[in-house]
TrEMBL record, chain A:
Gene3D superfamilies: STAS domain. InterPro entries: Bact_StressResp_Reg, RsbRD_N_dom, STAS_dom, STAS_dom_sf. It comes from Nonomuraea corallina. This is STAS domain-containing protein. Residues 144-255 form the STAS domain. The keyword Phosphoprotein applies.
From TrEMBL, chain B:
The lineage of its organism: Bacteria, Bacillati, Actinomycetota, Actinomycetes, Streptosporangiales. The keyword Kinase applies. SUPFAM superfamilies: ATPase domain of HSP90 chaperone/DNA topoisomerase II/histidine kinase. It holds the Pfam family HATPase_c. Gene3D superfamilies: Histidine kinase-like ATPase, C-terminal domain. Coiled coil: none annotated. This is Anti-sigma regulatory factor.
Amino acid sequence: MTVHADVARRRITELLGSADEQILRRWSTIAQASADELRELYQALRNSLAHEGDDLTDVRGLLAELSRSRARQGYTPSDTARAVYSLKEAVYESVEDDGGADALRGFIWFSRLIDDLGLYTIETFATAREKVIMDQAEQLLELSTPVVKLWEGIVAVPLVGTLDSARTQVVMEKLLQILVDTGSEHAVIDITGVPAVDTQVAQHLLKTVVAARLMGAECVISGISPQIAHTIVTLGIEFGDIVTKATLADALAYTLRCSGIEFSERRHTRIAVRTEDA
Amino acid sequence: MTQDGHLAISGNADLVMVRQQVRVVAVEAGLSLIDQTKIVTAASELARNALIHAGGGRVSIVVVEDGRRRGLRLTFSDEGPGIPDLDRALTDGFTTAGGLGLGLGGSRRLVDEFDVASAPGKGTTITATKWARG
């Protein structure tokens, strides 16, 4: 069996060598790619097969390059894989001309090898895509958690989107760092942009508030919409003595008052602050 | 989503998918904004329970009608360890995962109909329905 297999393999390798120009021409016709583009790949494949041990590193490297350059030209990964698979058809014509049992048996082995290489181009494509997605997710994580200064001693964190553990971690770290850097005593966490507050989000918020408190800063949670208030009550989450406000404006007014800053309308201050009875 | 309208829950990213899909179907079923938020929150709790306690599961999201009104039915199923003591699990503040212990009981309050079928070693199936108020 192994003797047969070796002979079969050798026969295919010989064919790839002796009929190289013919195969390459056919391949480039079927794959609709220039022969120059494929020649390097073909040579690398021949070289790897000529040596024992199936070292396909060079071939894979070239395939990855081909896959990338074709993707840039607008080919889909299937197109690239199909181009690789068409080598089978080109080689089969030479195998048929040969007609020997060894060549046919070898073709099965060769076919399987090409299948693997075709799949490899798809894998390369998927890996490249995944990397882009992961990079973007990371950037988004950074982008979506700004800490802004509202007033001397008052910072705000506008939260937008879903709050999962990873984001809360980033938010908490950033907020605590800013509290230290700016010496702020008040922080407003605005959740206007958070579509739903479930128990995990609530727990994350509560932890952030407690952590800020440990550093001597008071947190106000603002942006609680009617539907979120309804949901929180039904869920049974208690915010305890944490101050919550409906809007960011209310929260700013509240924190300003706590800081002892007052505005009066008679002085024509351009900032209108709604005052509440103490 | 698969052909039969099931969503797989196998990671944190899927929780986002579940919430978004439930929101889309809730709008389709004609739920008010408050009811949308409630069912989305309940879906988030139940999906996370399936993920944390059973390592994953799946959910089907369907629009239902009973002749008079339309609504949304979510069916969460998993092949996890099951819930040994359902009454305790539904008690507020009871948690085995370090959360607030309000997920299951809170979800029951957030929806109109709530049914849990679970046995130790047999997995858990939770059906939650929210009707649109006409």
